[in-house]
Amino acid sequence: MKAFLLLCVCVAGLSSLVATPSRAAEPCRQAAPDTFVIDGPIDAALTGCVERAFAPTTTQLVLTSRGGKAGEAMRIAERFEGKRLTMTVKGECNSSCANYFLPLAGRLIVEPGAVIVVHGGIDPSLISRTQAAANGMDDGADLEAVAALQRAFMERNRINPGWLLYREAGSTAVERLDGAWADFDARTRAWLVEETMARSCLPDTVVEYRTDRRGDWLSESRRRALRRQNIARSNTVVCN
After folding, report:
1. The domain containing residue 226 runs over which residues?
2. How many domains, the chain?
3. What pTM was computed for the model?
4. Any bridge partners for residue 30, and if so which?
């Protein structure tokens, strides 16, 4: 059964959903010759930081980001293409962080309590409905140009359209996505990616959701908090 997406949320909206305060003075840093850290929103400042600091010796990428602008995310992601980095999500990797960084991972580690939240990319459906504002995703950007950049990025890196909740113009049906979301209703703003969805949508990536001492990846209290913020669980949703 096709999964459905009723609404794409803005990046500003996502910033209030599962907020984890940024701890780094800079949005990125080369913590060790093999380890690069991104800690902050995806914007022009982060792009500049990555361009200055990212070392070719990097094999590990540590991520904490609520997301940001799609165009900037794809420009940053070009540096990760083909490297098969081990990417570790600490706290959160949402929106454009999830859309454009995680599909490039050779190995993906989701730490206990960390979340991946998606709401879709810039697709023909979004452009046809909100040409002027695009729900705030890339204010002032040429959406057609960003959409073309996304198409090329998807093709170049063989990204399943289901991961980006991709829809054609005038359609609410997500391409190559099956199953049913949990806690989904008209108020849903975004989707929590659980292990089943991550493994199916990122087939070239070794996916590991780590658990705490109780054997839980995400506590029930955290799940309830996400539901109160209108974030549905991926549940049985998979990419086909």
Report:
1. 2-239
2. 1
3. 0.88
4. 36
